[in-house]
Design goal:
heterodimer, A: about 230 residues, alpha/beta, Rossmann fold, 10 strands, globular, B: about 400 residues, 6-stranded mixed barrel, 13 helices, about 55% helix
């Protein structure tokens, strides 16, 4: 297996007034294709910052990030947008669906930016929504859906572009236990198809589904353990 | 591209009230430009009508020196202009097309128990051609009437209405200074002239009849004034020279002495009038353009608010792969749609307004293609120009900042 994500000496410094804060202080790790990595740590440990770097939403102060063989730190804004569109699929804690669009239109959106034809993207979006079990809710708007359903729309949106890497930032943070399990079930299934899943969470029972747990503390990696994942019930 | 268009429409639709209010600035601006320019153009057109009705190639001859300064005697004192002068001009001057000598006097026109005060003009057949009068009923005067000094009259439409109401005046007898005249024709209405008087409030009789029957002038051959029509506008100068030369010769004015007549033409008046209307059109247009600029700033304002409000949406779009260009085009398109729809509405309203103005105020308006094109072009420009900054601002956001925006 080859490393799909490789991070070396990542530093992110925030300035507030005169003092500088290193949110990331020399983080290095790599993830293999098909791995299910849970990133854990208390708030302020740098796990979310690391996730934003991996997701190409933010750029590091220094350090190297090689994603699927490309040095991301040297890419232009538009090239980064392309990577976010094609290589990465995002799932957020707050779902981040566009409120005015239906579930279907939300799911279609990444394909619009990828330049896929209208007919094909509708077809693919429909399949993605079926996959997450929302075929009966395609015309509903986010405010007509429950939290769990909204998160499943977001998962469909992350899947529709066939991205090899799925990044989930506290995907169960706003959900109750039962719907959290449904979401984790879906993520395990996605991982089972060979996609790499990176999951940020502070809930230990959520992290149990991962094959590897990386713990952050004060901007550094505290421990990096491989484990036998708990299979979804 | 269609997708972007749909997004823009749905986003504008989602904020209907706001979109409409934003557009209002452009609507008013464009409508104002079009209506104002239409009014200005209408003024020019009307002036052209007046001038062609009165004639740019018209020369006016009056007895008396052009300058009546100091202690010198007033106009008409001693100086005379006679019918034979005018006949000589008609025969000898090459640059002229028609002449119309005129004796005008105010008189009470009486028909049975009704009477009306009007200007009575004694003139020749050329008058109708030069002043562009048509017969509505009956006929105009001809040379036979002049030769016979016939007691016939052609009434202006105002006079005909006042004296006869709805009756047919043809063949009836009206009295002017107690002399009976047979009505042989009624003139088609020309309306108010821009210079003032009602052009329909006249009675036209043969000049010979006027000289013999009505004139109080001791010199029976005298006339008040004459209109001469040059063959062409470009010939006005030469016609004036010819007329002046001929009259000086006929009046035996020695070299160096002043003319005992004065010549005038409309060109100077026309030039200064068109200068005035041009300045007016320009002024109205530029005042209206200011409201377009203000409208544009309104659009920018709303787009900036919209960018701030939708920062999170921008972040989400960026996270799932929107390039800066995609974001920029989305906001730009919204701004352009606002100004285009506003512009189109403004054109309709502006057109309606100018039609309304001409209906209600009886002021001719002329919606020019140029003004419409200018307004449409300007509203596009407003959309792009004032939409660009908010669009650029949105696209320059860092994805993470946009996503985290609360």
């Amino acid at each position: 297996m080859s490393a799909i994500i490789e991070v070396r000496g990542l530093v992110k410094t925030y300035k507030s007034g005169d003092s500088e804060l290193n949110a990331l202080d020399g983080v290095s790790f790599s993830a293999e294709r098909g791995e299910f990595v849970a990133i854990m740590g208390p708030s302020g440990s740098g796990k979310s910052t690391a996730m934003n770097m991996i997701g190409c939403l933010d750029s590091p102060t220094s350090g190297e990030y090689i994603l699927d063989g490309r040095d991301v730190s040297k890419l232009s804004r538009d090239e980064l947008a392309r990577i976010r569109n094609v290589t990465l699929g995002f799932i957020f804690q707050g779902f981040n669906l566009l409120p005015r669009l239906s579930a279907l239109d939300n799911t279609v959106l990444p394909l619009v930016y990828a330049g896929v034809s209208a007919k094909e993207r509708k077809e693919r979006a429909r399949k993605a929504l079926e996959r997450v079990g929302l075929s009966s809710r395609m015309k509903h708007r986010p405010n007509q859906l429950s939290g769990g359903q909204q998160q499943r729309v977001a998962i469909a949106r992350a899947l529709v572009g066939e991205a090899p890497i799925i990044l989930a930032d506290e995907p169960t943070g706003n959900l109750d236990t039962r719907t959290s399990l449904e979401v984790m079930d879906l993520l395990c299934g996605i991982n089972g198809e060979g996609r790499t899943v990176i999951l940020v969470t502070h809930e230990p029972d959520i992290a149990e589904y991962a094959s590897r747990v990386i713990r952050f503390r004060d901007g550094r990696i505290e421990e990096d353990i491989r484990q036998t994942p708990k299979r979804a019930a | 591209m269609f997708e972007v268009f749909r997004t823009a429409i749905s986003s504008l639709w989602a904020n209907k009230t706001r979109s409409v209010l934003t557009m209002l600035g452009v609507v008013i601006g464009v409508a104002a430009v079009i209506a104002m320019v239409a009014v200005g153009n209408g003024a020019s057109t009307q002036m052209e009508d007046v001038v062609s009705g009165f004639g740019v190639n018209m020369i006016m001859i009056r007895p008396g020196a052009p300058n009546q300064g100091g202690v010198r005697m007033g106009a008409g004192s001693g100086a005379r202009l006679t019918l034979s002068d005018i006949e000589a001009i008609e025969q000898e001057c090459w640059s002229i097309k028609a002449v119309a000598p005129q004796i005008s006097t105010g008189a009470q026109i009486i028909y049975e128990n009704r009477n009306w005060s009007a200007s009575v003009t004694g003139t020749t057949a050329g008058f109708f051609e030069i002043r562009d009068y048509q017969a509505e009923l009956g006929r105009l005067l001809d040379d036979d009437d002049a030769r016979a000094a016939a007691k016939v009259a052609v009434l202006g439409s105002t006079v005909a209405k006042e004296l006869f109401g709805g009756m047919d005046p043809l063949g009836r007898s009206v009295r002017i200074r107690n002399i009976p005249f047979e009505v042989v024709g009624v003139l088609a209405s020309k309306g108010q002239s821009a210079m003032g008087p009602d052009q329909d409030d006249i009675v036209v009789i043969p000049i010979t009849t006027a000289q013999r029957r009505l004139s109080r002038n001791t010199f029976a051959d005298s006339i008040n004034m004459a209109f001469v029509q040059a063959r062409d506008v470009s010939m006005i100068e030469s016609a004036m020279d010819e007329i002046a030369g001929l009259l000086r010769q006929r009046h035996r004015i020695s070299r160096g002495a002043e003319d005992d007549f004065s010549l005038g033409n409309m060109t100077d008046v026309v030039n200064s009038l068109s200068q005035v209307t041009r300045v007016m059109t320009l002024l109205l247009g530029s005042v209206a353009s200011i409201s377009l600029v203000v409208g544009g700033i309104g659009i920018m304002n709303i787009m900036l608010v919209s960018v701030t409000e939708r920062t999170r949406e921008i972040g989400v779009r960026m996270a799932i792969g929107a390039r800066a260009f995609d974001i920029r085009i989305q906001f730009l398109l919204e701004a352009m749609l606002l100004s285009l729809i506003g512009g189109a509405t403004g054109i309709l309203i502006g057109y309606g307004t100018s039609v309304g103005i001409s209906q209600i105020l009886k002021w001719p308006t002329h919606v020019s293609g140029g003004a419409v094109a200018l307004a449409a072009g300007f509203s596009c420009f407003v959309g792009v120009f004032f939409g660009f900054y908010p669009a650029w601002k949105a696209s320059a956001l860092r994805p993470i900042d946009a996503l985290r925006f609360e």
